[in-house]
Amino acid sequence: MILGGIALHERDAWYLQNRLTDAVRRVLPAGCDPADFELHASEMKSPTHGNQNRPPSGWAAIPQAVRERVLAEAYRVIRTYRPVDHRFPVALFGSVVEGPDRERRAYEEILHKFDEMLNRRTRERGERGERETGFVVHDKRAIERDVQRAAQNWREIAGRMGTLTHLADVPVFADSKASRLLQAADLVSWALWRYYGLTTPDTRWASGLWSLFDGPDGGVMHGLIHVSPRFRSGCTCPPCASRRPLPPAPLTE
Ligand SMILES: [Zn+2]
Q1: Which residues surround ligand 1, an ion (CB under 5 A)?
Q2: How many Å is the Cα radius of gyration of the chain?
Q3: In terms of Cα–Cα distance, which of 125, 108, 93 is closest to 192?
Q4: How far apart are CA 211 and CA 202, in angstroms?
Q5: What is the pLDDT of residues 38-63, one digit of tens each?
């Protein structure tokens, strides 16, 4: 189970959406309307050519090399985005969970990590600082078949995790077609999937994102967790490596 997310201050929402749309406009051939092209990575890699049930994807008419350039440009926008207020940098979140009960665990980890970041940022601003509150928006297309069940699951998870003190409400569901920010979250998930979900990891998309996962002072990568039996046997992925104590320094005479 792989989940990814992007957290940003509300003031940055408009700017980041626009930069992503500009990235699409810059690379696509003249005459293409960026609004018709969702940044949905798996669709961009293998666009639907259409059948009796589904219309063809707009990406199907775009050559593969151009689609790859749009993808690369979108990742570059996320990687290089500078927030309006430097105290609120964009932070990525992710959970990669193997084993039983992975769906519930993956959602809990993400909610918990996000809440922890808001708590930390509130503390950093001191007693006079404003309390940070977060709001979670989930791509409803990712669970299109059963939105009601997913909404109920979220409610139960949020309810059970009584320690989520910085979330304004239970997550809401929206259509990623209408939101470049949900598309940005999809790009985070997809990069994680290319890294963790293939027999041979594809590092191309994730490698530029590691430093953006929430984690103060470059220590433990708090924003990303890999729950796997491989941790014990020495998984070397960046979040596992960041949680492993450094080997003792060699003794010298
Ligand atoms: Zn790992």
Answers
A1: 226, 235, 237, 240
A2: 19
A3: 93
A4: 17
A5: 999 999 998 887 777 777 888 999 99
Q: Which amino acid is at 45?
A: K
| Cβ-based neighbours of 52, under 8 Å, separated by 6 or more | none
**Residue matched to tokens 């960026």:** 34
Query: Rounded to the nearest whole angstrom, what is the distance from the C-alpha of residue 114 to the centroid of ligand 1?
Result: 20
Residue-wise pLDDT tens digits, 70-90: 999 999 999 999 999 998 999
Site of tokens 């939105």: 147
Instruction: Give distance in angstroms: CA of 224 to centre of ligand 1.
Output: 10
Q: How far is the CA of 97 from the centre of ligand 1 (A)?
A: 10
Residue 249 has pLDDT above 60, yes or no: yes
pTM (predicted TM-score)? 0.89
| C-alpha–C-alpha distance, residues 160 and 167, integer Å | 14
